[in-house]
């Protein structure tokens, strides 16, 4: 679906300043509870996993701890599998798919891999069902040392000591109708640019790393997810969200260069999932199941092909 929605904050052609950011912030409403829906789901996992706080933020007097869940009995000689969700807080199945994976399959790799899961990178945005953080910054363009996004900087610090021990990193996302009705218009307004409408693909797809593509790895993930939900077709131009489809359901971005989460580490295998929760052909449970299928397939492939 294509939208052309003018954005109500700011002056067209002029980037936002502090006043516009404050006006945007005032419009954000808390719709759900990070504590009740995420922290409460992590709490029982402490019986089987090591759960630690790797940072926190205080936004206008509200405290948000960042939590990481790790394999208990971590062995340094084993490869590390990283799973991240909720980089964009509104992308619900990324968060709950990561939690479901931990509950149902997190210990299935004991003795073969160290599994590290950050279920919700952006808790303030999770509560407000938004893409940006409190400062109107998209964490997923800012994963680098010294990042202006506290969520991104904390995750970079967490993963930095692991270095090349990370064999696989899968980052769980969604593409939604609100990308075109709200978030891309807001981005254009914030940056003082003209909004150019795009299309939202109906179905699941992956984003590979253009700098080090792994087509067989991506195919293994797509094949697993296709058993759970439908894969997005390319549009009439052979593209998905404006990028050429390089294989069925797969596009490529320069992950590290763009500051994207899946590009934080030098992992041989990395990908970003994109579930489409607004499809009439998908249910919330199906979206979560698709994320779990993707994580399992990604880890299984990496373990079977450690040397590429």
From TrEMBL:
This is Peptidase. It comes from the Bacteria. InterPro entries: DUF2817, Peptidase_M14. It comes from Luteibacter yeojuensis. Belongs to the peptidase M14 family. One of its GO terms (molecular function) is hydrolase activity, acting on ester bonds. SUPFAM superfamilies: Zn-dependent exopeptidases. Residues 30-306 form the Peptidase M14 domain. It holds the Pfam family DUF2817. GO terms for biological process: proteolysis.
